[in-house]
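#structure-requests
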Amino acid sequence: MSEKTLLLEIGAEEIPAGYIQPALDAMKAGIVKGFSDARITHGEVRVFGTPRRLAVMVEAVAPKQTSVSTTLMGPPESAAFDKSGAPTMAAVKFAEKAKVPVHRLTVQETAKGRYVCAKKMERGQATPTLLKSLLPQLILSTPFPKTMRWADLSITFARPILHIVALFGEKVIPFVVGNVKSGRFSQGHRFMNPGKLKIDTPENYVSSLAGARVEPDISVRRELIRKRVAEAAAQQKGDVLPDAGLLDIVCQLVEQPYPVVGRFEDKFLALPKEILITAMREHQKYFAVTDGQGNLKPLFVAVNNTLASDMSLVQKGHERVIRARLSDASFFYNSDVKKSMDDWVVKLKGVLFQAKLGSMNEKVQRVVRIAEKIAKEVAQAANLTDSKGFVKMAGRAAQLCKADLVSEVVGEFPNLQGIMGRVYAGVAGEGKEVAAAIEEHYRPTHSGGLLPETLLGAVVSIADKIDSICGCFSADLLPTGASDPYALRRQAIGIVQIMLDKNFSFSIKGLISDALSGFTNPPADTGEKVYRFIEGRIEQMLVDQGFSRDVVTAVACVTVDHVPNVWARVRALEALKSEPDF
């Protein structure tokens, strides 16, 4: 038998967009591990996915698993055979254990002497036989954030399974998952090509689905969406606002993309662009459209899964929905700008930061105190001409940094926290520096994310992060190897990255001490624990940047109290280490 291609497709009701790619990654890893454990050689592994199907294709799969020869060591020769050479009971029992005839036993010379051994040849089974159990296990072990049951079945999956395609070359691998038997019949597009779709061979899978109005290749579908959306916007003399994240989401919402351009009233352009973009993006998954100068146009592009006979009706439907969304957003915004940010700060007394650490208002007051202390050191080190003014602005930015959490817009669009704080501060006349710091104090929001651009934003960001870290450590809310619910590792790395970026050389230990003074009776060793925690993050960052572990350890064990100095010492020692006389 020659090598063949394996195809497994799981057809289901619409799977949530965020589930699809992680599930496909897990399926790919699972099939590779399963084949490795089963000693089945194979070629390239590819995955395909749409809202209604998850599929994995493995090329050049061996017709049977690799045979393996093993040698089992038994008792010494002297114990296995008597003086006449006849096998003793020890030899008989060993042969039974090894499942070989006694006369097949051999003697092997070892460092300890001559020992009896048995050679076993485990011949490989046919791959189709192994796949009957391997594929159902792969299906049922696919991880999802949430799973569901259906009918009276005991199995779970992201959504009810409707069909399973399992082909090894031209032949079906027969098995049953729940009440679904595997076969060679898939499904075309739900609306434009409903009904069964016969898959003759794995090689015909993509072309068969394409003929049934389904594009299963995620990368191809993603590029198709990007191109068609751009073309639709260009027809209205606009450009699509780049949004790779939204493109990924929309790609997992459709099996074949059909964009349509909609319009909303010009009056909504008076809203901050962040509100418009978020309202279109988060609720409706619409792409925003800009003019040649980067300003928003009163247009959007919606990507449909079906080509309707009258797309103008589809357009009107989208416009009706977005009009309601933007009307709500406009009401929330206009209501917010009539209120005082200082009143919002007071209202933060009713917002819980953490049960053991008090309200968000209490956190803000701690951050104000820390930010002012950091600002004094930064102003002194940078020889700022108006150091008192800088400290005052730092305190004001820290005072208002969480105010927008109780605004109506952030209540509707939580991902606009900080951004709306900057907008509202600007409307209230707080000054550009304070407004920018309010937005920037959340940075970095993820690994590799943007750092604060301004000195003021950097100061408030560090103050906010060190307060969270010290607060959680004082309340014994420490991260574990598997869990970090308060993102303390990310916040510690953020502090270090900001200090490096801005060349802040104030003391880490002093920063920790200042932050801990805002909490009532923290355990005596809390400061040391926080310092070691940040030290661990610094060491890992240095190793990730390519510095050798021994150099990093040598430097860190002395002190990491002044962050920029740590990097300078590591570079110096790394260079010295390469000298011949080191």
